[in-house]
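Technical note accompanying the year-one report. For the benefit of new consortium partners, we illustrate the data format agreed upon in the data management plan: each record pairs a sequence with a structure-token string. No post-processing was applied to the example shown here.
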Amino acid sequence: WNTATTLMLLPIALSVVRTVESSDASHSSDDSVAPSSFSIALLLAIAYGANVGGVGTLIGTPPNLIFANTVEELGRTHPDIALGFTPDFLTWLGFGLPVVVIFIPVIGILLTRVFFRLPGGTSRSAAARLLEERRALGRNSSRERRVLVIFSLVALLWIFRGGQNMPGWSTLLVKLGWFDAATISIFLRDSSVALLGALLMFIVPSEPRSARGILEWHEVESVPWGMLLLFGGGFAIAGEFEATGLSGVIGNGMSTWVAWPKPALVGTISLAVTFLTEITSNTASTNMLMPILSSASVSGEVHPLVLLLPAVLSVSFAFMLPVATAPNAIVFSSGRLPILQMVRVGFFLNLIGPLIVLGVMYGIVRPLYGLPF
């Protein structure tokens, strides 16, 4: 989850910034990195890396799950539509990971060579201080190693569960006769793997011969449960859009628009959604747009992924304002990031994102899944 990753990395980044700045102040003749430029570039890299990294997997950011729910609902309500796409972890990884591999280096080059022009090399004094702090941490504890094992197990189960035309452990369970295909599709999903990982965190002892689990309930109380309720409320709102017919009304009004050439349609959706998300959160934008675009694809007789997939990718590519995404807001809350710098850099990345979405749609998604658009 990109929000959790940002919350975890921000204190580390601020510690690194303080170390580099204090080292530069005492060794100005050796190091030429401007502290302000370094700190701004590092903080923007965390926010933008989390935004783009959240696109890499199905669980990386909430809009991805909203998209998956919309596609599944569309398949149930319109079984006559040949989606040719199953929104599972492995299927998403097929195009989500290339997006990350393409976009992250672009962001890195722009931050360090175009907008801030950070010099090459390392700050020797800062590197020495950081190495000392790393050594002071000592070896990983038994508890930390066990968390790593459980995390790796959950990640492997997600990746190798199987997907469209791709066998996995779920297929093996069906062949062994332990479950039938219908039961697997209902009860053994990516969410089931996540629950297994959480259960193991409570069951596996934190230390050898210890009765205490790695995770205890008082530690779980700090989880932002309100955020989960927000997602559930979004699903409910999206369902009411469909149930009341509002999404159908708006979708029918878009029938002329969806008649455009497909590349122009994909590019326009990506650009419009990117800048729309700047004034509202990407989760709220996705909850609002998914049922509307779904209905528009049905009424306009356009393959749903032509509208839905560019939209869900682009809501994570809003880089200008703090309100757009949770990583933007978290990094901005550090108080060390001028809003004008975020707007300046983010505006250019907002223009690059739709180009990458267009390339991925036609260079990866269409040939990989044989989709007719």
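Partners are asked to follow this layout when depositing records. DSSP finds 17 helices and no strands in the chain.
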